[in-house]
Amino acid sequence: MVEAYYGYIRWGATAKVNDLATRYPQLLAAVLQNAPAPDFLAKSSSLTTSGVLATLDLATILNASQSISSEIELDQLLKTLLNIAIVNAGAEKCVLLLQVEEELQIAALGTSGQQPQILSAPVSLELSQDVARSLVNWVKRSLEPLVLADARENTQFASDRYIIQHQPKSILCTPILKQGKLLGVLYLENNLTVGSFTSDRIAVLNYLSTQAAISLDNSRILYEIQQSKLDLQQSNAFLEAQREASPDGILVIDKNRRVSAYNNGFAEIWDIPKRILDTNDDYQLLGFVLDRLDQPEEFLKKVEYLYEHPQEDSFDEINLKNGQILERASTSVILPSGEHCGRIWSFRDISEKKRTEAALKASELELRSLFLGMDDVVFVVDQNGIYLKIAPTNTEKLYLPADILIGKSCQEIIPSEQAEQFISVIRKTLDNQQTQEIEYSLLIQDREFWFSARCSPLTEQTVIWVARDISDRKAAEVQLKQQAQQLEEYTQTLEKKVEERTQELSEALVNLQTTQNELILAEKMAALGQLTASIAHEVNTPLGVIRSATSNIIAVFNVLLQQLPVLMQRLNPTQQAAFIALVNTSLQQQQSLSTKEERQLRRRLQTELDTLGIANAQEIADQFALLRIESSLEVYQPLLGAPDCDEILQVAYKLVQQSQNAISIQEEVDRAAKIVFALKTYSHQSQSEEKSLIQISDGIEIALTLYQSRLKQGIEVIRKYEPVPYLLCDPDALTQVWVNLIDNAIYAIGKEGTLEIAIASRAGQIVVEITNSGAAIPDEIMSRLFEPFFTTKPRGEGSGLGLDIVRQIVQKHGGDIQVSSQIGKTKFSVSLPFDFFLDT
User: Fold this and answer.
1) What pTM was estimated for this model as a whole?
2) Does pLDDT of 603 surpass 80?
3) Which of 127, 214, 288, 724 could in theory staple to 12 by disulfide, Cβ–Cβ 3.0 to 4.6 A?
């Protein structure tokens, strides 16, 4: 039993040594009562030659061994080991090196009389300055202890840098082994005495090293267990955090149909009460879920199938009664051994995603229908002008059939001049990544077609080309030129001022063709084309009145030239005064009488003439009614008594009629001048685009004048003009705004209704509100009102550019335009800032 006891000690089986001492104390009494040590520790009972070391009994050694073996924490173990080694070996310095993979690293240092130092960051042996590296490497290779009685005299290690620098005396370097495997090296020094490390000390140190090896290995195993436990805890924490951070609702069911885990997302998606979740019973969860499903039978069937087939996974969608749509995914949990240990369910609410997809699909269908309804030519080409795609819209306007164009370059298809122009526009579009605009003509089937195209970047190497047939517009421009020339001929007979203004209008129409803003020019020219017929009618009307009045003047003048001198000679002075008074009074009567009022006036005059006793009272009353003489006939008594009274009144009426003809001529001339001025002002385009100070109402009145013929057919214009400051702006551009808005309002009103125009000053801005009584604008159209080329008018009546041009002009002036619409009231509000102004 004693031999076995010491054998276990040599092998480092501390637990077995303690077990034997506990179970067989009577058999080990001699050992436990400080009996002589075995052979391998026999030398520890003798004294050193210097007398420094006292006799070490077995109990002291076992006590030291127990102190080492009782330490579990690595740092405390290293401190205990260094303290015991220094005390029992009689060393001044002790260094402990531990084997880490293939390298020795200094883990702790101790000095006699001081607490050992545990290095938080171990130092490699090759970098250390605290030990004789050659000695340590020798022990590492040989796995045998090494003792130098006087390192200064040793020739084998005389070249060691540490020994040369520090000149140590006694050095002991011993390996720490466990079952032949190196765990570390214990390095000790004593610089006071030569040969201080005797065989007794070496034997004790070897025994303690054996115990230290066991404790170090146990400490390493404990550290690895603790580290594995910490890693497992961290892994579980990460999995828990990942599960809770997931946007999905997650449920984990073990192989016994028990709830192993779930996250808050699962409880929230299904709105499951906590009392049901706390049961951890999958059957209760399933019963709650089924009540919320649109098709519970299919759901249950799928669940049971997956539980019966643990090797299968699943992904599908389910519908809830409340309209929610969930994505359901199920995955089996299979161990590396192949054992099935549960199933993971995940649920994601995709209701909003489904609604978005449905909306996108509907929008796509709408856009596709709209696209197919376009009458533009649309195709995609690359940087070299090769046709890649062609839209199935208005294909009859293609230069060649689509199947021939695809894959070929425009240089192979169209004339070289147009091809070079196309390539230049395409490359400029790609270089600048900005839309380019171009107008060009092509000869298609022996007919010239004009196109207005927009080339926009699609990718870095491709563009989309949208071409609109503007042949009709080009023809309208030619017709407009012809009508402008006719208008100029019509106005040549007017006064010089009208001729000058007409000439300015002709020049303005020519200058409009060279303006840089092609969109505004096209819209304005289109509007002028629509207005030409009504404007020509408006000019012809005053010309007809002038022609008729002039004919009357000429005809009556010849008669009066003969009658008036004769008549004046027949009249005495009193009759002459009464005749002149009669003419002057009639000239002052400008009001127009209705048929009913005229009959009443005749009866009243006839009654008064009968009272005065005048013969032929009815005929004379008719004459006075024509002269608009209403009362006080006694003033004209000298004429009434004359036998030729009827002739005198006819001459007076002819004189009055000449004055009225002259007034009519003047009014119609002014009216024609006003129309021509409005047309000239509207069509004028300033080349310099210089701004000027104007009253905002001036441009609005010009627009109303242009549309006078349409307005007077049943549309009431209501003006609400408040005094506002003068505005610094581009008058021509703003006139274009009012023309477009008033034209749209008239179109919306139709034949009868009201057009209200209000001008006011608000918060540093001039606000113009144009309100019409037409039908409300539908919501689906409201958002697209200002899109280029979008129009609700029939084809040929609108280009779709009007409101886009209006918005550009308003924004160029730093303003804003808003629109609101309801039944019987559609309002366009234009706000323009007046940073620089003059008070009215």
Assistant:
1) 0.31
2) yes
3) 214
